[in-house]
Design brief:
The complex is a heterodimer. Chain A is an alpha/beta fold. Chain A is built from 13 helices and 8 strands. The chains are: A alpha/beta, B alpha/beta.
């Protein structure tokens, strides 16, 4: 199977560790991963902020770059949801490649049929199911099923887990007061768990919650769950 | 030949006087309001989840509700004429109102014709939308709200902040204070026990019911094949208003139509479970025109458009007209919970308000509302008629006037991101440009983050640290493999 990695624009620039982790996991499982260098951005920010026309060139570029692959994996629930839910309406020729685009846990659990990826991570971790993964992709407990197989991990449940953190892309900038009020509650629930690590499927949401946790010097580290799955306990 | 007439936009209490972010600011800062909303929305949310969870065919019911409403929207003109014919045959008089002002004029004229100078009111969103109480007052007619929460809001010189629970923003101590200040016949030793507050309101309202000659209601449903109107309520005040006075005037949005009486089977299951979290509401009143010798003998129905035809004309936004005003979307919305209902500046707050108000008025008049959502999707999951609220929000954002600076930024970003070459160069530039700063911040604070930035980035850094580009981008790492 030809698997391509769609890193997403935010990860490429600010969170390369997530892409490195995805690459390591897939290679460890014996798969070859391609990174087509012509990829850019899925266009979600433009489309969801009211700039559909400006998003379309990115959508077309995605089709050009990824259409020849059997499976495309994106370490982001919201970018995957943008591609799978919105692309077929925005640009009908994207329908086929959209259906072959998977969020990481979908690729691992549904396509490759694994939940134990051979990881070890001796930390207390809580998991926040980000909105688009939860309610658009219906990831269910796939990411948690993967995390439960990690050796040494202690998973603790997050209160009000299914409530949005207040990021919402440009919402955080357009409605800073409401966004901050939601973030404050989310950070409080994270701290209630006593976990040292907060995991999620989207680095954009994690940058928001993590940015709040850092501001309060909480000592809680926000990481993409791929980084946990990539850890084997061996010093690299 | 007449030129085609563009559907008129709506008037009344459906416009934000202030942009949502500005209007939300005081609400977010009001800790008492936040606590009241937090407690109330979570209580109703849990009740709804419990009674919805026990219905094995809930998803099929939602599909049926959604399909019936879509059918209504496809043939609304035909169904409205059918309703008019059925209701007229049963002895009612049907009136047509293009907008809020016309609807108010009709109700005022009908009330004046009876010689009455007061009306009792059943809780109704449509009459709040057209600002009927204000119009009646201007005409020298006193309008008395008889729903407990509407009474609280009216006595407090306030406006409703929730579709189902208009006084959700008050706690019982605040309600006691309003009653003591504004209800002349309230007991001097009134406590803030819910039962005592309800008893005071009951005694106060009973005199009104017995003396009123005109009642004004809305309707939850209007059945086309029989001409029947339906009001669903909890307190029994509605039943009093609908049966005791001589004249009954019902103000009904044109989207409230159902094709047949049997369609009620679906909606009377969906509505109470979604709204109050009850298996069935205590009072369901249905009336079909006039029943000689029983109940009101002078029955009027005012069918109101007020922008609904414009909504109907947009196939993507149209499902907003399927709303049955249950308020389940408000009760699960994290934005509503923090901002409260008044921030939406319309009688329709919350997620449904964010898609309905801008469509009724035209998006330019309510441009901030489609952005009053994180697109988290919780509203769509609980909607009993499956209105895809996030999809319609995004659709309306296309039509909203965009701030020039934002538009310019978005265009530049699009120009960069549509080209693999330009995007790769931009990544290199961002990484290299922020590199020294990132390294400096990392030495000083242990993290590559910024804590304070000037406007407009301050909207982010006021409450969260901002990550700087990594020392190497992912593609640079990949290239070195």
């Amino acid at each position: 199977m030809r698997i391509a990695l769609f890193i997403t624009c935010v990860n490429d620039l600010a969170f390369p560790a997530t892409g490195i982790a995805v690459t390591r996991i897939l290679r460890r499982l014996g798969h070859t991963v391609d990174f087509p260098a012509d990829q850019t951005c899925c266009g979600q920010m433009h489309a969801n902020t009211g700039y559909r026309a400006e998003a379309l060139p990115m959508v077309r570029n995605y089709v050009d770059v990824f259409d020849s692959y059997d499976a495309i994996v994106a370490p982001s629930g919201s970018c995957t949801a943008m591609i799978r839910d919105q692309y077929p309406h925005l640009h009908p020729p994207a329908t086929s490649v959209a259906a072959r685009t998977y969020e990481l846990s979908e690729l691992l659990v549904d396509v490759l049929g694994v939940t134990d990826v051979g990881a070890e991570f001796p930390e207390t971790v809580t998991y926040h199911p980000t909105c688009h993964g939860l309610r658009m992709l219906r990831l269910g407990d796939r990411p948690l099923a993967l995390l439960r197989q990690v050796r040494g991990i202690k998973l603790v449940e997050l209160g009000d887990a299914e409530e949005c953190c207040g990021f919402g892309g440009t919402f955080a900038l357009k409605n800073p007061d409401v966004s901050t009020a939601m973030l404050t509650d989310k950070c409080a629930r994270v701290r209630d768990t006593g976990a040292r690590v907060l995991a999620a499927a989207d680095n954009s949401c994690l940058a928001h919650i993590g940015g709040g946790l850092d501001r309060h010097r909480s000592g809680v580290r926000a990481v993409h769950y791929a980084e946990i799955l990539a850890e084997t306990g061996a010093t690299s | 030949m007449n030129p085609p007439v563009a559907p008129a936009t709506g008037t009344g209490r459906i416009r934000t006087p202030l942009p949502f972010p500005t209007a939300a600011k005081p609400a977010v800062a009001d800790t008492q309001l936040r606590a009241n909303l937090h407690r109330a929305t979570r209580t109703i949310r849990a009740k709804r989840a419990r009674v919805v969870g026990e219905v094995p065919d809930w998803e099929a019911l939602r599909d049926a509700g959604s399909a019936i409403k879509a059918d209504v929207q496809r043939r609304l003109p035909e169904l409205l004429e059918q309703f008019e014919a059925s209701a007229t045959a049963a002895g009612a008089t049907v009136h047509w109102a293009r907008d809020a002002a016309e609807a108010c004029r009709i109700v005022v004229a009908l009330t004046r014709a009876t010689g009455a100078d007061e009306v009792v009111k059943v809780k109704s969103m449509a009459t709040q939308e057209i600002e009927l109480n204000e119009a009646l007052e201007a005409a020298g007619i006193a309008a008395y709200e008889t729903d407990l929460a509407e009474l609280i809001v009216q006595l407090g010189d306030d406006t409703p902040s929730h579709i189902l629970v208009p006084a959700i923003h008050y706690n019982r101590a605040q309600i006691r204070e309003i009653f003591q200040r504004r209800m002349a016949d309230a007991p001097a030793d009134l406590s803030d026990e819910p039962a005592a507050l309800a008893e005071a309101a009951r005694a106060h309202l009973r005199r009104r019911f017995l003396s009123a000659r005109v009642a004004v209601s809305g309707a939850n449903f209007a059945v086309a094949d029989t001409g029947t109107l339906v009001v669903v309520e909890s307190e029994g005040n509605g039943r009093m208003c609908l049966t005791l006075p001589e004249t009954l005037i019902s103000v009904v949005g044109v989207e409230k139509l159902l094709p047949t009486f049997t369609d009620l089977e679906v909606f009377l299951q969906l509505l109470p479970r979604s709204s109050t979290g009850e298996r069935m509401n205590p009072y369901t009143s249905m009336w079909t025109g006039v029943t000689p010798g029983d109940g009101p003998q002078d029955v009027h129905v005012v069918l109101v458009d007020n922008g609904r035809s414009a909504v109907l004309a947009d196939p993507v936004g149209r499902p907003a007209l399927s709303c049955i005003r249950c308020s389940a979307c408000l009760n699960v919305c994290p934005v509503y919970e923090r901002a409260g209902g008044h921030a939406y500046g319309s009688v329709y707050p919350g997620p449904i308000g964010a898609i309905l108000s801008p469509q009724l008025t035209g998006v330019a008049d309510n441009a901030s509302l489609p952005y009053a959502s994180t697109l988290c999707g919780a509203c769509y999951d609980v909607c009993p008629v499956k209105i895809n609220i996030p999809e319609i929000l995004v659709h309306l954002r296309q039509q909203a006037p965009h701030p020039p600076v934002e538009r310019a930024t978005m265009r530049v970003l699009s120009w960069v991101m549509r080209s693999p070459r330009r995007w790769a160069a931009a990544l290199r530039l961002a990484r290299a440009g922020a590199g020294p700063l990132g390294a400096y911040r990392e030495r000083r604070t242990g993290a590559r983050t910024l804590r304070r930035l000037p406007w407009p980035a301050s909207a982010w850094t006021r409450s969260r640290d901002l990550p700087l580009p990594a020392p190497q981008t992912f593609r640079e790492w990949w290239g070195k493999q």
